[in-house]
Amino acid sequence: MSAVQQEKNGRVRILAAARTLFDNHGFHQTAMAELAVTAQVSVGQIYRLFRSKEDIIEALVLDDADQWCAEMEDVQARLDSGELTVEATFKQLFIHTIDEKDEALSFDILAESFRNPAVADTIGAMCQRFRTYIRYFACAANDKLSGEALDAAEEMILACLFGLGHRSISRPRLPASSAAHWTAQMIVTALRKV
Prior knowledge:
Layout: H1 3-25, H2 32-39, H3 43-49, H4 53-80, H5 86-99, H6 103-115, H7 117-141, H8 147-164, H9 176-193
Helix pairs in contact: 1-2, 1-4, 1-6, 4-5, 4-7, 5-8, 5-9, 6-7, 7-8
């Protein structure tokens, strides 16, 4: 195996271990030595690939954003082809958000973004990428949306995505599928009324 491939495998193992450890113990409570043992790499290899734990957090956010954008691109293609209705499109977005399993890690990352400008910038860049898809989907629901109304729709949908992604803390009454269905219906109805 080449050195480049070993480095890539090490990076993948480090990020997978970090995701598990940060989710279970918290970002600040996870020692680099513990991360190295779990990832089956040396502490030195971690520092060769990442300058700090903050860099690991940023890498996790970027990996998640890449995956989520690829999924939104697929949903957009399915909407464009007629395979999905606008309501089904929003339901797909919301169910994906609700089904995200790293909720504790997500809270930890959001908290870190208030302390660390680099993490905040990474999350901001991720949201900027999401906004492109969100605007597209909002316009699919109402092609007359523009200006402040479109900006407001984008903010509302992004807020719904963040909120639904952290709904377990509120002890939800609806199963994920029902919550996604009704939220999609309400969002699309609201967008069409603007």
